[in-house]
């Protein structure tokens, strides 16, 4: 009797009401709730992954998020078994899988399962919106705790979201920092790492990965944490491009003002002079009002919001300088440079020579090995090449300029600050292998690339290097990868903020945001980032660091119209730093074939 | 038995609601506080949870070491940070009553805070929760939340309403009344003093401490019910203590805690520490020397070491040290935290049998 009373609620929790005596009249709502719950579990179950060392064995969990077999898991799960591992699905089949992208700080990794027969789609789950999750919501955690399941059938646990926007500090070398994460009482145990957390619609809201452990050992303590899916969405474009991603810092210390007072406020402390936030005019003592649309009043909130973005993203910052409130876009700096290198062995412990591992030896013969290419800065360069080539091929659909590598001549008008008038632009190769670029806007400007002195690249004056960037643009269009032997890689996905056509000051940058695929190039000393609209791979902007230790020159391409069957921008807005330099309007083009 | 089944099934019905506990969590969150005080040591949290029981800022919480602090800091749910003062504690009821102190006002003056609070009297009048009922636990376990961040919410089921055999360190757990035993892991560090409610957010009890059941050596998850009562020996008489009385009298400043008789089990285990002369009422337990060949010498205790904790319990004076040792016996191992220079050291002391005659102190060796 006593035992029944104790076990009953547990049975109800596990969703096994079917075991109850049939004589009991079940309430209609209960039956409905149970049916809905079991239907959700049945729907998502086939996409839950048991992540194993190559060949099998208990290790961690994961979840497939698209029909091609891309699956999310924890970095701390893949770290020991990369690059090639095994992944078991609920159908009992063990697939070969390869690491695609990773986030050491955020503890996330993207892997790809290789289908047994090429082209066979995988079962997958939909991504939810973790910003809509509230404390007190129900949740389902799935995975392979304790390596219980030999046939990869996932275990399901059911419980509450205990808290949202939680911050859990890094563990070990600055990695595994859980920012803005979900806290759950849904039971997660060793082996659940990397597994999915679902809402009751079966949408993926997080990846389970940590718990608060104390006296009771490293098993469920009623306090587990899942990385929010909205954070992962920010990194997903980077993962798919095979990047070994990094998180971000503002390049400034942020302090709590009035820590002992009734209410606290955040303010800037020391700011690095090379930090973008410094160039934007923020100074020590200025108050932080909001970042990326979230108001800031505590250190945890600041760490939370900063922690969900990859480095180099630009995001709106609202701050108060003396008595004026300002909004600006800030480029984020990388974090891992500041923290300890996680790959380095701890001091005093020489790295052990690796013992031969039979699973790793066998993995080398896996067909998934064909999908792996090692390169510094990448989790898997193979996927970078794939994404880059796909992006380039899609961009080429708007117009192929590879046949017109000769001299370019463009005519039109310009409107720069208080000046306006006709414009001519010519860019041509010279016999010595360099490039001559001439731009006339009332007065003539010229530059010779790439031999020009870096101190003479700000041409026209105060444009941030418009003319040198235009030579890079011609080079990109006409030569593609061949023109950028130093670097021509996919940079993942970043937001881009084209300024308004009327040249007015922007008061809400978030509204102008367009998510773009990024191509990174390097020719000579000039590094460029090219922004392609994620929807149609149309080139909408470029950012080039022409002048050392200064803001990049920004070009925004608009008013695309066909010229000889190719889409060509008839308008370029130029910005440098916080200033709008001006707008170029193109009317007539002449693209000559290469000699 | 059929009845019990139905009860829990009917209660399960709201599970399909679009907003199962979000509104309840938000409502409860305005009636709880995050507490910060003494501790911060291995196994001893310097943070805790409490519930507001008056608009004026009376806080009911668990009687923990965290409250042994000159200054207790309170974070309200709206992010305000304030100070609180311990009014009275009753270990027999595992409860303590605090009050928020507003700058510039005396403690017995109205604070004018007009906070949201749990109606304690109403909670006592409500029927007890039954085994099988769903309950919610709210706390700032693991110090997850600061300032205006929300308390953690956990869902559990009442497993039993019963007496408990608990222990904590070498002390017997002082509370001997009935408790709600919960199937969820609610009693984590810092959770003690948080509310256990029904699924609508009505107060049922206070989440208890982290203690182990002496029968099974397993960690217990329990809460002290709002109507808790215990019988204690007060001299020759047996007195009945109730939590509602504690709350009602405590808020008026009229509650007198029961004087607990010292648990004199034996003469205690032998350590061999020679302390500095005990001249003050609270002489700090500085080691002056150790007896040659004694457990203290073997454990490596040195002159000028300051004994700060024994098995996680703070020790402030030589008297406290001796009182603690009375509850020990030969063969026990004590874990001391000792301040040596600027560092804290952990020292394990294997207590021995008391020598028939105290050994003379080790003579100071002449300097060569």
Automatic annotation (TrEMBL), chain A:
<feature type="compositionally biased region" description="Basic and acidic residues">
    <location>
        <begin position="352"/>
        <end position="364"/>
    </location>
</feature>
<dbReference type="GO" id="GO:0004252">
    <property type="term" value="F:serine-type endopeptidase activity"/>
</dbReference>
<dbReference type="InterPro" id="IPR009003">
    <property type="entry name" value="Peptidase_S1_PA"/>
</dbReference>
<feature type="region of interest" description="Disordered">
    <location>
        <begin position="338"/>
        <end position="368"/>
    </location>
</feature>
<protein>
    <submittedName>
        <fullName>Serine protease</fullName>
    </submittedName>
</protein>
<dbReference type="GO" id="GO:0006508">
    <property type="term" value="P:proteolysis"/>
</dbReference>
<keyword id="KW-0732">Signal</keyword>
<keyword id="KW-0378">Hydrolase</keyword>
<dbReference type="InterPro" id="IPR001940">
    <property type="entry name" value="Peptidase_S1C"/>
</dbReference>
<feature type="signal peptide">
    <location>
        <begin position="1"/>
        <end position="25"/>
    </location>
</feature>
<keyword id="KW-0645">Protease</keyword>
<dbReference type="Pfam" id="PF13365">
    <property type="entry name" value="Trypsin_2"/>
</dbReference>
From TrEMBL, chain B:
<keyword id="KW-0732">Signal</keyword>
<feature type="region of interest" description="Disordered">
    <location>
        <begin position="349"/>
        <end position="368"/>
    </location>
</feature>
<dbReference type="GO" id="GO:0004252">
    <property type="term" value="F:serine-type endopeptidase activity"/>
</dbReference>
<dbReference type="InterPro" id="IPR043504">
    <property type="entry name" value="Peptidase_S1_PA_chymotrypsin"/>
</dbReference>
<dbReference type="InterPro" id="IPR001478">
    <property type="entry name" value="PDZ"/>
</dbReference>
<keyword id="KW-0378">Hydrolase</keyword>
<dbReference type="Pfam" id="PF13180">
    <property type="entry name" value="PDZ_2"/>
</dbReference>
<dbReference type="InterPro" id="IPR009003">
    <property type="entry name" value="Peptidase_S1_PA"/>
</dbReference>
<feature type="compositionally biased region" description="Pro residues">
    <location>
        <begin position="357"/>
        <end position="368"/>
    </location>
</feature>
<dbReference type="GO" id="GO:0006508">
    <property type="term" value="P:proteolysis"/>
</dbReference>
<protein>
    <submittedName>
        <fullName>PDZ domain-containing protein</fullName>
    </submittedName>
</protein>
<dbReference type="InterPro" id="IPR001940">
    <property type="entry name" value="Peptidase_S1C"/>
</dbReference>
<dbReference type="InterPro" id="IPR036034">
    <property type="entry name" value="PDZ_sf"/>
</dbReference>
<feature type="signal peptide">
    <location>
        <begin position="1"/>
        <end position="17"/>
    </location>
</feature>
<feature type="domain" description="PDZ">
    <location>
        <begin position="269"/>
        <end position="342"/>
    </location>
</feature>
<comment type="similarity">
    <text>Belongs to the peptidase S1C family.</text>
</comment>
<dbReference type="Pfam" id="PF13365">
    <property type="entry name" value="Trypsin_2"/>
</dbReference>
<keyword id="KW-0645">Protease</keyword>
């Amino acid at each position: 009797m006593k035992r029944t009373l104790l076990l009953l609620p547990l049975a109800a929790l596990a969703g096994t009401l079917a075991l109850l005596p049939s004589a009991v009249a079940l309430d209609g709502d209960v039956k409905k709730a149970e049916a809905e719950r079991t239907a959700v579990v049945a729907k998502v179950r086939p996409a839950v992954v048991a992540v194993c060392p190559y060949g099998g064995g208990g290790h961690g969990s994961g979840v497939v998020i698209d029909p091609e077999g891309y699956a999310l898991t924890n970095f701390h799960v893949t770290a020991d078994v990369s690059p090639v591992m095994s992944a078991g699905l609920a159908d009992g089949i063990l697939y070969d899988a390869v690491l695609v992208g990773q986030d050491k700080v955020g503890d996330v990794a993207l892997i790809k399962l290789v289908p047994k027969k090429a082209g066979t789609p995988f079962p997958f789950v939909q991504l939810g919106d973790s910003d809509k999750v509230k404390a007190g919501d129900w949740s389902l955690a799935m995975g392979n705790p304790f390596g219980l399941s030999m046939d990869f059938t996932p275990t399901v646990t059911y419980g509450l979201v205990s808290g949202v926007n939680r911050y859990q500090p890094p563990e070990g070398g600055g990695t595994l920092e859980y920012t803005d994460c979900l806290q759950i009482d849904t039971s997660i145990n060793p082996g659940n790492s990397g597994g999915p957390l679902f809402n009751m619609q079966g949408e993926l809201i997080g990846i389970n990965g940590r718990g608060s452990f104390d006296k009771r050992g490293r098993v469920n303590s009623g306090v587990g944490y899942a990385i929010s899916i909205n954070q992962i969405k920010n990194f997903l474009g980077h993962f798919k491009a095979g990047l070994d991603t990094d998180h971000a810092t503002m390049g400034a210390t942020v302090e709590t003002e009035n820590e002992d007072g009734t209410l606290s406020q955040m303010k800037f402390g020391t700011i690095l002079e090379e930090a973008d936030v410094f160039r934007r005019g923020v100074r020590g003592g200025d108050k932080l009002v909001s970042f990326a649309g979230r108001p800031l009043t505590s250190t945890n909130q600041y760490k939370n919001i900063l922690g969900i973005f990859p480095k180099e993203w630009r995001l709106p910052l609202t701050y108060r300088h003396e008595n004026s409130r300002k909004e600006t876009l800030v480029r984020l700096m990388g974090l891992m440079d500041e923290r300890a290198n996680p790959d380095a062995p701890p001091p005093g412990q020489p790295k052990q020579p690796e013992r031969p591992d039979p699973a790793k030896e066998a993995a080398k013969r896996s067909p998934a090995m064909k999908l792996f290419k090692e390169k510094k800065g990448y989790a898997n360069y193979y996927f970078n090449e794939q994404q880059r080539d796909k992006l380039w091929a899609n961009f080429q659909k708007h117009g192929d300029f590879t046949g017109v590598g000769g001299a370019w001549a463009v005519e039109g008008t310009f409107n720069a600050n208080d000046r306006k008038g006709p414009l001519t632009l010519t860019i041509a190769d010279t016999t010595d292998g360099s490039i001559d670029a001439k731009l006339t806007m009332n007065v003539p400007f010229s530059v010779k690339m790439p031999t020009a002195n870096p101190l003479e690249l700000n041409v026209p004056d105060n444009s941030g290097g418009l003319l040198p960037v235009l030579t890079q643009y011609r080079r990109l269009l006409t030569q593609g990868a061949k023109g950028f032997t130093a670097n021509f890689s996919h940079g993942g996905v970043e937001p881009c903020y084209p300024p308004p056509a009327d040249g007015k000051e922007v008061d809400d940058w978030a509204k102008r945001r367009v998510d773009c695929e990024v191509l990174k190039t390097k020719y000579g000393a000039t590094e460029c980032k090219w922004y392609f609209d994620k929807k149609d791979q149309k080139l909408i902007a470029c950012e080039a660091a022409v002048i050392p230790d200064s803001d990049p020159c920004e070009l925004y391409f608009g008013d695309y119209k066909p010229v000889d069957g190719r889409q060509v921008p008839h308008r370029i807005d130029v910005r440098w730093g916080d200033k709008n330099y001006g707008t170029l309007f193109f009317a007539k083009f002449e693209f000559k074939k290469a000699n | 038995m059929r009845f019990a089944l139905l009860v829990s099934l009917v209660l399960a019905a709201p599970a399909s609601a679009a907003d199962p506990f979000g509104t309840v969590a938000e409502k409860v969150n305005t009636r709880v506080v995050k507490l910060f005080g003494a501790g911060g040591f291995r196994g001893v949290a310097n943070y805790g949870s409490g519930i507001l029981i008056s608009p004026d800022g009376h806080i009911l919480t668990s009687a923990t070491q965290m409250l042994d602090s000159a200054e207790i800091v309170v974070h309200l749910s709206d992010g305000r940070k304030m100070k609180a003062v311990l009014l009275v504690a009753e270990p027999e009821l595992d409860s303590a009553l605090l009050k928020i102190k507003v700058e510039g006002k005396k403690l017995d003056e109205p604070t004018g805070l007009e906070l949201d609070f749990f109606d304690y009297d109403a909670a006592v009048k409500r029927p007890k929760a039954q085994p099988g009922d769903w309950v919610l636990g709210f706390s700032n376990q693991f110090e997850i939340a600061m300032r205006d961040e929300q308390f953690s919410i956990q869902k559990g089921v009442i497993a039993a309403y019963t007496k408990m055999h608990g222990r904590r360190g070498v002390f017997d757990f002082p509370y001997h009344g009935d408790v709600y035993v919960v199937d969820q892991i609610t009693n984590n560090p810092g959770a003690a003093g948080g509310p256990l409610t029904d699924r609508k957010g009505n107060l049922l009890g206070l989440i208890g401490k982290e203690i182990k059941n002496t029968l099974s050596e397993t960690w217990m998850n329990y809460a002290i019910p709002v109507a808790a009562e215990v019988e204690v020996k007060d001299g020759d008489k047996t007195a009945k203590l109730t939590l509602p009385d504690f709350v009602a009298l405590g808020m008026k400043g009229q509650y007198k805690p029961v004087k607990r008789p010292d648990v004199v089990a034996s003469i205690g285990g032998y350590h061999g520490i020679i302390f500095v002369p005990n001249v003050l009422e609270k002489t700090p337990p500085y080691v002056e020397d150790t007896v040659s060949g004694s457990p203290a010498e073997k454990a490596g205790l040195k002159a000028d070491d300051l004994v700060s904790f024994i098995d996680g319990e703070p020790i402030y004076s030589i008297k406290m040290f001796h009182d603690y040792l009375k509850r020990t016996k030969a063969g026990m191992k004590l874990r001391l935290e000792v301040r040596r220079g600027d560092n804290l050291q952990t020292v394990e002391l294997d207590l021995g049998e008391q020598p028939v005659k105290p050994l003379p102190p080790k003579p100071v060796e002449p300097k060569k």
